Amino acid sequence: MNLKIRLTILNFIEFAVWGAYLTSMGTYLASVGLASNIGWFYSVQGIVSIFMPALMGIVADRWIEGQKVLSLCHALAGAFMIGASAYAYSAGDSVAFAPLFALYTLSVAFFMPTIALGYSVAYAALEGAGYDSVKAFPPIRVWGTVGFIVTMWIVDLCGLQATPGQWMVSGGLSLVMAVYSLTMPRMPIKKGEQKTLAEALGLNAFKLFLNPRMAMFFIFAMLLGVCLQITNGFANPFITSFGAIEEYQNTFGVQHANILISLSQMSETLCILLIPFFLSKFGIKKVVLIALLAWVLRFAFFGMGNPGSGVWLFILSMIVYGVAFDFFNISGSLFVNQETDESIRSSAQGLFMMMTNGLGAFIGTVVAQQVINHYVFYPQAEGATGAETIAGWQTCWYIFAAYALVVAVLFAILFKDSKKVEA
After folding, report:
1. Of the candidates 347, 65, 73, which has an alpha carbon nearest to the alpha carbon of residue 187?
2. Which of 8, 153, 322, 376 is the most buried if burial means most Cβ atoms within 10 Å?
């Protein structure tokens, strides 16, 4: 089979695993009385991303071929996710936070490294076959987003948005991915040369912080990472909360929030294809700045919209999400790949993941949960009306938009763009 097709299938399944629950999990947790803990389920992705992607990247760089590490991680992630689903089904409405969170955390701990590992396996395979990864990878990565959308729709249309069935779908796909990963081209480990202890452990990737430009890039990766999981965690509960207001109860958005949110991922599929042009034309600084401004609009449009006459603002929010997400995550990954030596690329990708989906996402979701608890869930518990609940949500979205705007201004001032990524 053609290499690009094989890598396309790899990306499709990889992100289908994530799409099965990432945007709808909050609605299920709220339905079983865990609304004030939604942020912990999303922030734990950040906690494990602080060390697990870097650790697995080091293993792939130094000791075990990357495709084998990818397979092992998916096998463990799938088993623990199926365990979480089975526990939730057996507990019914009496789900306890501790056992559910423990099983979910173990699954996520092994899933999060697979994103960076999948990128590294794809880059190595493409470059080994003589392709330019900057040009060849984005059209392949598009199908990862398609996979994400497909499982979002399956979960929605099968009535699984408010059930632990979404985790069962995810776990099953992880096991499929564990098998398929072993069919990928071998990703050779580096052997033969004399290495220091730091080099043997892959810690030399952290030397990138000695480069002022790369250090500044990674710092802003963390600050932008704050935004990444906020809408994944809270957009679905926000949109469905309009159901408490009579005029919105039967709107498409309230009834099928996941399908409405999937417009965000559809936007991604188009925006990924724009990355090679924008990187070569404008360079990493302008591309990331565009992403930051898109985050401002993403949050602000949520604050202004509703699933009735204001649904067009929700749609605009979904459209700009493609720019907000891709113009940093994918462009940033390509930038790190080109700016680092081949011997530490897997470790460097793990470091990039640590700063964005690790520290950044952890800080962002924990703080966002506190903001939302203050303006939404606590008043709701005290008997707030549907209109008062929505007003609380709107305040939260405007706070998040203001944060993204401040980060954009600081990035424009402080980051120096000395060269463009070649395309």
Report:
1. 65
2. 376
